[in-house]
Amino acid sequence: MASVPACVQAKISDIKAQPRWNPPAEVAEYLYNGKRIFLFTSDCCDQYIQLYDENCNYICAPSGGITGHGDGQCADFYSTATFVRLVWKDNR
Question: In this model, does residue 9 exceed pLDDT 70?
């Protein structure tokens, strides 16, 4: 299994430095458009669920926000992406 990129680990460390989110933070790995990407949940209601590539470049928000439908830049994510694994869940 591929290792978690350092920048993703750094983002997880940043989340760990905050009070525990409700619901708990999660990071999942997917294959999307032929690329390895990471989906980060949000810390509260009406915020985007964000996708980042292996270098932590922002890709899009497939869900969340006021409408629940993300930023509209990757509306096909949930129908075309392949779940690889849960990378991390905050179980504090």
Answer: yes
Distance, in Å, from the CA atom of 56 to the CA atom of 59, rounded to the nearest integer, reads: 9
Q: How far is CA 11 from CA 6, 77, 90, in A?
A: 9, 22, 13
pLDDT over 90 at 44, yes or no: no
Query: pLDDT tens across 24-40, in order?
Result: 999 999 999 999 999 99
CB-based contacts of 42, cutoff 8 Å, min separation 6 = 21, 48, 49, 50, 64
Residues 41 and 63: their CA atoms lie apart, in Å, by 10
Interatomic CA distance for residues 43 and 48, integer angstroms: 9
Which residue in 10, 73, 35 sits closest to 63, CA to CA? 73
